[in-house]
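Q: What residues go here?
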């Protein structure tokens, strides 16, 4: 008897299964028939899930041969990170390090461009986010969503749409981690202060000052997360940066 599941629920089973079995890049994984029987799902729903994994370059289906795992670490799309976050899958210290480096490359470039390209509309968008951030923090609420909107507005001020698209994927992939980070009001207050300083530097066109503020801001977040995912931190509550 098959179970009525949608493709997202199927993915939440297949991905942990692949991890737990320790399949390596190039390995053939079980066939459609075997997976459908293992998870007691219909072949139609399974094919939808496999098509999603193929689109994200996680697997490759070869006619008359089987389903093969790609090198997820180097070939899978950034959307794979978004999916793992949506499914609540754990991230390793190496994953966090790579994500932080990816974010740093995006934002350093964005800030440099924003200092020379920002428009009045860009600054108004950033100011609107900062206003809501301050109001939410004063009311004892998280600024997790506003943090993402601030950095997305900063990337938009670069005028480069590819940077904006890549940054959007990062913020979607980090949604769960942001919620945890901003559950501590101290992290929210510090971010608002740094966001404000960053906004002022961008308005002034002072790229040196903007990059210095951004470096401090990203450094705080990276230190927090490297401590949080480290083995020594598992037995104790997270510490703020």
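A:
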């Amino acid at each position: 008897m098959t179970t009525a599941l949608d493709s997202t629920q199927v993915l939440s089973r297949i991905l942990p299964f692949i991890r737990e079995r320790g399949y390596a890049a190039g390995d053939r994984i079980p066939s459609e028939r075997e997976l459908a029987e293992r998870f007691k799902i219909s072949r139609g729903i399974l094919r939808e899930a496999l098509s999603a994994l193929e689109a994200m370059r996680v697997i490759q289906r070869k006619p008359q041969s089987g389903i093969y795992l790609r090198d997820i670490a180097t070939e899978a799309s950034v959307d794979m990170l978004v999916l793992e976050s949506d499914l609540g899958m754990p991230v390793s210290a190496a994953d966090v390090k790579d994500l932080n480096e990816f974010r740093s490359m995006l934002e350093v470039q964005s800030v440099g461009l924003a200092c020379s390209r920002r428009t009045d509309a860009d600054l108004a968008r950033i100011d609107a986010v900062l206003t809501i951030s301050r109001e939410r923090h004063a009311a004892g609420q998280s600024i997790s969503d506003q943090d993402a909107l601030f950095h997305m507005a900063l990337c938009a001020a670069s005028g480069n749409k590819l940077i904006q698209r890549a940054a959007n994927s990062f913020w979607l992939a980090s949604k769960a981690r942001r919620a945890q980070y901003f559950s501590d009001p101290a992290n929210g207050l510090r971010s608002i202060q740094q966001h404000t300083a960053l906004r002022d530097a961008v308005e002034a066109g002072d790229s040196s000052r903007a990059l210095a503020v951004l470096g401090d801001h990203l450094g705080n977040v990276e230190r927090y997360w490297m401590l949080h995912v480290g083995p020594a931190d598992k037995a104790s509550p997270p510490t703020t940066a």
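A: Context that may help when evaluating the design: Residues 93-117 form the longest helix (25 residues). Residues 177 and 222 are 12 Å apart (CA to CA).
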